[in-house]
């Protein structure tokens, strides 16, 4: 039996154990998937992962607040992990530890495969400039949108993140500077929904948008999605598809075969009405 785990703090709410158990069942793989709560102390993440490796662990998923620790722990990091400054998965091979980040590719796969939403040539607005926005940027840019605007409550963070992407299709601004711009797709990558708050975004940004995408999942119609719906956006999505596609990519990275997410997407979908 191959052993994997998710490391976080807290970790009780994590869906990964159920997702990977379902993928393993679907594909007939024999694996065990644990929850590991690492202490939030200096070295706490490393000690927890060291112990898991000593017990034969093959890889881990990493969630808050350890995604940066995971990059530091690795001996090799993918471009996605380095650019996001964060890893959501590690794989162990003797002394070698590889880090990668599949959150962004999970988002893009959900949009292209499940939502059938073409990104090439589209105008995209990302609300937020924290870890979630950072992880999404590069994979979205690779789809060649016409432009990406990053708008953040603290404008300086959005400007800095846009600047890191170099000259080109990415622009940063404050939430209060959005008046008058139009977008095809608006993402909420702020953590506001986790406390049932609404990023202070003018309803006008939704004019003409065809999809509003909430990166949080399992929270139903968040204040962001409600604002989008009331502004007439015809399609709403939450982050369930992104979570499941991310997990499918990780499973493939670990096990060499890509599970299908359709059953779990149906089973866990929360009505957005
Ligand atoms: P995460 O990893 O979830 O992205 P983070 O790095 O702490 O977490 O970033 C949180 C993001 O949500 C930031 O963009 C934050 O805006 P600030 O940079 O101005 O702090 C944004 N955010 C959190 N609560 C918000 C709220 N109530 N309204 C608007 N933006 C909010």
UniProtKB/TrEMBL annotation:
The residues that hold NADP(+) are 79, 128-132, 152-157, 215, 239
Q: Where is the SDH C-terminal domain?
A: 239-266
Give the domain of life: Bacteria
Task: Set out the biological process GO terms recorded for this chain's protein.
Answer: amino acid biosynthetic process; aromatic amino acid family biosynthetic process; chorismate biosynthetic process; shikimate metabolic process
What pathway does the UniProt record associate with this protein? Metabolic intermediate biosynthesis; chorismate biosynthesis; chorismate from D-erythrose 4-phosphate and phosphoenolpyruvate: step 4/7
Q: Where is the active site?
A: 67
Task: Give one Pfam family, short name only.
Answer: SDH_C
Record field: catalytic activity: shikimate + NADP(+) = 3-dehydroshikimate + NADPH + H(+)
Q: Name one GO molecular function term.
A: shikimate 3-dehydrogenase (NADP+) activity
Q: Which residues bind shikimate?
A: 63, 88, 103, 217, 246
Q: What is its EC number?
A: 1.1.1.25
The record's GO CC annotations read: cytosol
Q: In what residue span(s) does the Shikimate dehydrogenase substrate binding N-terminal domain sit?
A: 6-89
| InterPro entries named in the record | Aminoacid_DH-like_N_sf (IPR046346), NAD(P)-bd_dom_sf (IPR036291), SDH_C (IPR041121), Shikimate_DH (IPR011342), Shikimate_DH-bd_N (IPR013708), Shikimate_DH_fam (IPR022893), Shikm_DH/Glu-tRNA_Rdtase (IPR006151)
Instruction: Report domain Quinate/shikimate 5-dehydrogenase/glutamyl-tRNA reductase positions.
Output: 115-193
Q: What class of enzyme is it?
A: oxidoreductase
Query: Is the keyword Transport in the record?
Result: no
Q: What does this protein do?
A: Involved in the biosynthesis of the chorismate, which leads to the biosynthesis of aromatic amino acids. Catalyzes the reversible NADPH linked reduction of 3-dehydroshikimate (DHSA) to yield shikimate (SA).
Alphabetized HAMAP family for the sequence: Shikimate_DH_AroE (MF_00222)
- Name the family the entry cites: Belongs to the shikimate dehydrogenase family.
Q: How does it assemble?
A: Homodimer.
Q: What is this protein called?
A: Shikimate dehydrogenase (NADP(+))
Q: Which species does this protein come from?
A: Azohydromonas caseinilytica
This protein's gene is called aroE
